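Appendix C: a fully annotated inverse folding record. The material below is reproduced so that readers can follow the format used throughout the book. The structure is listed first as tokens, followed by the designed sequence.
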């Protein structure tokens, strides 16, 4: 069995790491370069950098900041936010990103997934899906959780796989920042219906939540932010506990 991955997420606004609850009420969480250095040293498997206001502000992700982070880490690095063209991706990869995460633009222009997978390879393309449970179903949201669509989570997930995405990063907006646990029921369904890795996001609060997301949610990786940024959970301790629970991880 492939090792499960632990992925800290740097949500970036105005060149600072921030964290909120249910996508709002953002607070400062530190310098992204310094945080990235720490995570690279203490056992994180990968790092995700999301420029959370790039789409809303209609601008590109900060390539200079991406470059600065990439120079200081030695783990795989995914970058997302405001990506709208092959050129955008090319710039980020040349500045040190290993993968890119696309969201709103991919929903509006699904062929973009095919285009990126064809040019850069599926292993480079992560499709992020922000969704909320409403009216007995999961609906996809855009622009950092600000705009609801009528697209359903599971339909969209299958489509992005078919179009060449290499991974899905699923964030439950209902669970984001609550520290009450991941959306394991939805994750389990998602993980079992697609044949590409699913990264779980939204709800990490304690070590038991990570055990559950792998055992009950069947996720391939778990992403979290504030519990790592504010030292509420130590990544080495977390990995040892996962290993003790027979969940394969890189120690």
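Designed amino acids, in order:
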């Amino acid at each position: 069995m492939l090792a499960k991955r632990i992925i800290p997420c740097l949500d970036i606004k105005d060149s600072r790491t921030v964290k909120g609850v249910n996508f709002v009420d953002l607070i400062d969480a530190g310098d992204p370069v310094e945080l990235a250095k720490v995570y690279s040293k203490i056992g994180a498997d990968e790092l995700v950098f999301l420029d959370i206001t790039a789409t809303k502000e209609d601008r590109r992700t900060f390539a200079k900041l991406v470059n600065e982070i990439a120079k200081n880490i030695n783990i795989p690095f995914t970058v997302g936010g405001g990506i709208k063209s092959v050129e955008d991706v090319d710039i980020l990869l040349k500045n040190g990103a290993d993968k890119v995460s696309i969201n709103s633009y991919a929903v509006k222009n699904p062929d973009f997934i095919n285009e990126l997978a064809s040019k850069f390879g599926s292993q480079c393309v992560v499709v992020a899906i922000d969704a909320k449970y409403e009216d007995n179903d999961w609906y996809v949201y855009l622009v950092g959780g600000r705009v609801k669509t009528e697209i359903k989570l599971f339909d969209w997930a299958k489509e992005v796989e078919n179009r060449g995405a290499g991974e899905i990063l699923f964030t439950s907006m209902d669970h984001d920042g609550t520290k009450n646990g991941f959306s394991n029921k939805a994750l389990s369904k998602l993980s079992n219906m697609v044949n590409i890795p699913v990264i779980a996001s939204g709800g990490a609060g304690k070590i038991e939540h990570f055990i559950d997301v792998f055992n009950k949610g069947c996720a391939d990786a778990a992403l979290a932010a504030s519990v790592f940024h504010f030292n509420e959970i130590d990544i080495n301790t977390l990995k040892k506990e996962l290993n003790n629970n027979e969940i394969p991880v890189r120690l």
